[in-house]
From TrEMBL:
Its main location: cytoplasm. It is found in: Cytoplasm. InterPro entries: ScpB_csome_segregation (IPR005234), WH-like_DNA-bd_sf (IPR036388), WH_DNA-bd_sf (IPR036390). Participates in chromosomal partition during cell division. May act via the formation of a condensin-like complex containing Smc and ScpA that pull DNA away from mid-cell into both cell halves. NCBIfam families: SMC-Scp complex subunit ScpB. Homodimer. Homodimerization may be required to stabilize the binding of ScpA to the Smc head domains. Component of a cohesin-like complex composed of ScpA, ScpB and the Smc homodimer, in which ScpA and ScpB bind to the head domain of Smc. The presence of the three proteins is required for the association of the complex with DNA. This is Segregation and condensation protein B.
């Protein structure tokens, strides 16, 4: 296969791996090419991203590689978050955000246990909107990533602190009671979003 096609596949896999990132070993296994080949492709990608006319960059944390936006463009990302047209979030994203807000720090698996469905996309949406962030890894098997809300989360929803969140029962007797309280949380967020939408 041509180098350009291999490079395109690596780029796609980097994008698809999202915030979790991916290692050279994983790329090598998935693409069935040598690690040396992957290293060469990564160097080419990194060189290309360093060009001033590219909007993303390749970073490495330990052995894991991620695609991320360039810090010099942060002003524009902030404007994007402040644009009413982009403020709409799916119910899945709102549910996930509520769970994280109440249970933080929390892992993706724990979120999925509460929601009962996969939550990769909602988590990625919230990360891209800077409403949640990675805050370390849980000291359990696999060292899963922990997520928590950000200062932007408080600002965006007009909260001064997490204490402003609708209170949950101290000892909810049923899961339904917990869901009922969470629904109030969703409604509050939905109202905020609707107020920001253009008339």
């Amino acid at each position: 296969m041509e180098i350009s096609k291999l490079k395109a596949i690596v780029e796609g896999l980097l994008f698809a791996s999202g915030n979790e990132g991916i290692t050279i070993k994983q790329l090598s296994k998935i693409m069935e090419v040598t690690e040396a080949t992957i290293e060469h492709l990564m160097e080419e990608l990194k060189y290309g991203y360093e060009s001033t006319d590219r909007g993303i960059m390749l970073i490495q944390a330990h052995e894991v590689f991620h695609l991320t936006t360039k810090p010099e463009h942060s002003e524009y990302y902030k404007r994007l978050l402040e644009t009413p047209q982009t403020s709409r979030m799916s119910q899945a994203a709102l549910e996930t955000l509520a769970i994280i807000a109440y249970q933080q720090p929390i892992t993706r698996t724990e979120i999925e246990d509460i929601r009962g469905v996969k939550s990769d996309r909602p988590v990625q949406t919230l990360l891209s909107r800077l409403l949640i962030e990675e805050v370390g890894r849980k000291d359990t098997v696999g060292k899963p990533m922990l997520f928590a809300t950000t200062k932007e989360f408080l600002t965006y929803f007009g909260l001064t602190s997490l204490e402003d969140l609708p209170p949950l029962p101290e000892n909810p007797e049923t899961e339904g009671e917990l869901e009922s309280e969470a629904d109030l949380f969703f409604e509050r967020f939905s109202e905020n979003i609707n107020e920001n939408e253009p008339k």
